[in-house]
Amino acid sequence: MDKPTVNQSGSALVALRDVSKAFPNGTLALAGLDLEVRTGEFLSLLGPSGCGKSTALRILAGLSEPTQGAVEWPNAAPQAGGESPIGFVFQEPTLMPWASVFNNVMLPLKLQGVRTGKAGARVMAALDRVGLQDFSRAYPRELSGGMRMRVSIARALATEPALLLMDEPFAALDEITRFKLNNDLLQVWQALRTTVVFVTHSVFESVYLSSRIAVMTARPGRVVTELAIDAPYPRAQNFRTSPDYAALCRRVSDALAQAMAAGAEP
To answer: Domain check: are 124 and 173 in the same one?
Structure first.
């Protein structure tokens, strides 16, 4: 499989410019956050719990407005109901328990008004991408935690998103399942060439998945370091056990420690 084309220096697909976010209770989640998301890359937002990673993701998705700053789309931003929307995978699968796997994945296409025949084909293609084509008639209660998360990913993929946002989707899963879904996600990303922004607080996961990592300070969050992960794709178990992987993890871990210290400064 070829290495995906990753835009490391070109124009941004979307950017956050000097973004701050304060909540009504007085919590300042983000302060002066600058972030560019480049077309075709796998970008991880890495930082400690509570540093504003999820808030930044929700602002990118248009689910929350910044208190200060701007979200910039150099080209046209994806529009609700369009053919290339933003896909969002939450920390929990958030599936409808009364609906089959097929109908759970179908939901956003119905909301977009995609005709039934075309929508059905896209649902089955998305389920095939995540290895659940034989479970289209199953219900969420019949699936494992990892399988439910696969359904959530398929639901996002069915919309054929230009930008896929993922908010710690594997954090609650056991290590074996998490490793497997990491591999599956990379295969999907390589096949579809979509742009991914992935929130995590795991150094190891960020290094394994990413072409680039943006390291954030503790709250109020801002990006203080960006690191290119230039290990070739595809990545598999031999990469996890390699000296290169260990060295990259040390480098990212050091950057995270420095970012957390910077965030603690008055």
So the answer is: no
Q: 252 and 129, same structural domain?
A: no
Q: What gap in Å lies between CA 158 and CA 187, rounded to an integer?
A: 16
CA angle in degrees (0–180, nearest 5) for 85-178-201: 75
> Three-class SS of residue 90?
coil
d(CA 72, CA 36): 9
Mode of pairing for the β-strands spanning 212-216 and 42-46: parallel
List, for residues 42-97, the tens digit of each pLDDT value: 999 999 888 999 999 999 999 999 999 999 998 766 655 455 579 999 999 999 99
Q: Do 261 and 195 sit in the same domain of this protein?
A: yes
The DSSP output letter for 66 is: -
The Cα 132–Cα 101 span in angstroms is: 9
Please provide the average confidence, as pLDDT, over all residues in the chain.
Answer: 90
Q: If you average pLDDT over residues 136-156, what whole number do you get?
A: 96
Task: Indicate whether 136 belongs to any domain.
Answer: yes
Number of domains in the chain: 2
